[in-house]
Amino acid sequence: MKPNIVLIMVDQMRADCLSIQDHPVVDTPNLDQLARDGVLFQNAYSSTPTCVPARATVLTGMSQTSTGRVGYQDQVPFNYEHTLPGELAQAGYHTQAVGKMHVYPARNLCGFHNVVLHDGYLHYNRNKSCNLESESFNHSGDDYLPWFKQQAGSQADLNDLGLDCNASTVARPWHLSEALHPTNWVVSESIDFLRRRDPSKPFFLKMSFVRPHPPFDPPQVFFDMYKDLDLPDPAIGDWAELEDPEQNGLNPVTLKGNVPRNRFKRAQAAYYALITHIDYQIGRFMQTMAEYGVMNNTVILFVSDHGELLGDHNLFRKALPYEGSANVPFILSDPGNVLKLKKNQSIEEVVELRDIMPTILDAANVEIPRSVDGMSVLPLCTGEKAKWREYIHGEHAYGASSHQFLTNGKEKYIWYSQSGEEQLFNLLKDPSETINLVNNPEYIDRLVFWREILIRELHGREEGYTDGKRLIAGKKAKSTLEHLLVSVKETAYN
């Protein structure tokens, strides 16, 4: 029988927030064990590091240019011919998603047999001014919210704590029973799937957490683990803006600025606490898998859609190309030795979210569609000599901060498409990206090397970023490429 597959996906978790990565304070015992039972990828990236484009890549195995999502844009339909759950379902898997999907329409199955949905507090889903029946508003079919109101009282709501869904600098503990927290709910629903799955089929379960994405609301016991610790200061580059004359740091949903120190330290503690809370709940799920006798025939892949800058370079949230935002945890675990991996190893090759679909299909011995741009990481994990990519190309339409980036895990080149600003970092010597080497004469050859690669990557793009000979700054960035919009219109017309 084919192995069961569990894809554990968290939202907005930095790659360095694992105790097995020697983080100075974060404790993740269960994730550490998953890594010991498998392979930890040091240089895993989200090429377009926000929720919507990242999740499109996970579902399809396609690059951001192939999905057409090169920035964040809600309410663009997900109409892809080949998806990871769809291919597994056709191959005889019982497929189930629990938790966050962040697709459109919200109840789009995307190839799953069933979805038990909680997307969090998405503004476009909760805009009551657009809903004539706001009193019966159903959070776009969200399954957690009615359950939460039933358990906590009809007047209870997700915003009772006074925290916005993108408030990266404001935090307070969860005010109700831990059992009612959305993190616990995702695991409870996943456990229930183990009870009611079709035992004659292998299963594919996507267990998708909204946290540690804001709101920063860990249960009190986890907040207490970190609130009094000496937490590490964020990295500040020699290129970072140190002054904040407009006091942007006082905005609870700020993207940059000087945040009051005590407020920042509470947010930092809460962020770490949410990660440990998830870790403990993953431990709860692992115990249940053992009780159901499926642990030793299950392959587990743990990943985040993107990271969190958490004050690095006086920046917050995600979308930008720096390590805190774009570098993500990526663990392939094989407790029962189904895949014959060389366990407890760390791999340096650069991988990306597009590699998840081909890896899982390879593990399940299912044919990989030609539409997939990613590569299975299994040859890297089993000691085979595998030809691997030399770099990944990432980008994000982001207003004045729209950018393109290239990295091989050892160096990173960034080009801000609106201003033409360039940055170059030696990640081996400077993993926190504190020294911009663009003006260092010793690195001029590397700067030219990376610039020429980016010109090749962008040649022919509809935005007009290059004429094939040079990069052209100031061209309007798009969040969604035309080929996706045309596809959506054609689908709607047909």
Automatic annotation (TrEMBL):
Transmembrane segments: none annotated. Residues 3-366 form the Sulfatase N-terminal domain. The keyword Lyase does not apply. Coiled coil: none annotated. It comes from the Bacteria. Keywords: Hydrolase, Metal-binding. Signal peptide: none annotated. Belongs to the sulfatase family. NCBIfam families: PRK13759.1 (NF010322). This is Arylsulfatase A-like enzyme.
